[in-house]
Amino acid sequence: MNINLSAISMVNIVQGIMVVNTETIPGKVITDTYGVVSGSTVRAKHVGKDILQGLKNIVGGELRAYTNLLEESRQEAMSRLVSDAMARGANAVVNVRFATSAVTPGAAELFAYGTAVKVE
Amino acid sequence: MMTKSKGYTRHGLLVLSVVILTTLISSSVSAQDRYSEESGLSGICFLAPIFLLTIFGLVWAILYPTMLLWAFLFSGKKLDNMILNTAERESQIFSQLGKDPLSTVDGGYRKDVNKAGIVWSGAVYGPSHWHLLIAWINNLFGGSVDIFQKVISAGRAESMQRLRETAIREGWDEVINVRIDTAVMSPGTNKKGIRAVEVFAYGTGIKYG
After folding, report:
1. DSSP states of B77-122 as a string?
2. Which of A37, A52, A91, B107 gives 20 to 30 Å between its CA and that of B21?
3. Cβ separation A60–B71 shorter than 8 A
């Protein structure tokens, strides 16, 4: 049961920008901050997959299509966060947090936010 | 993004046109029926949606109890197998590395870090409808609803195990500041829809060197 959901690796999303969820980057010094950067997305699967997952839900277990959906939406939110940080001229994003909300059944709103900083 | 929104508009237009066409056809058919009694084809046109709905209802009436029975027979065993599978992969990684690569400490306790980056993984787990039934009965009597605890802890263990596997695949030595979040797939106020919990684990992967 080896799962390789992400076709895009994180390395391709973060183009030279260090994205971490710690307050500081170990071994580096923060010299400047550029404010809060964020990225958000709402995604859904098509209705055929929704019906299939509804049937899968009756027998229980993992719902792969939704795992996949959330993985894709996190990558999209994260790539928006990174492009926001790049536009501000930062070279790292620290203290990244994720927030999820269920807008309607089967759709996921993903929100990633963090602080854009310059490190040395 | 633009192409996607255009796609949605196109789908919406398609559905709308189908609905309008069906209404027009059925209304014209019913209007015709008043004057000509012996129109077999138009009668079929008028009744076809109802027939389709009936067939769908019949299939659902057979399928749902079958799947519920299947869930009653096998879902407990399947859940146990999932938990065992996760535990087995976990112990494999422990024996491979000699320790747990995840930790919740914030920041560096070692100074020789040359690379850092975010790592995440998630798993959407849902109880079967049979489990929901048991949980409902448990809920009537109060106390701990063990079956949900089992499903969610299975999801959590699986999610953490995937975080370990992702970290190793992407070449991180260790994952610090691990946080675990849960999110429901459908709003709690909604009675219908998918009953599932998403367990999401994320942390900072660091590479020593």
Report:
1. HHHHHHHHHHHHHHHHHHHHHSS-SB----S-SSS-EEEEEEEEEE
2. A52
3. yes
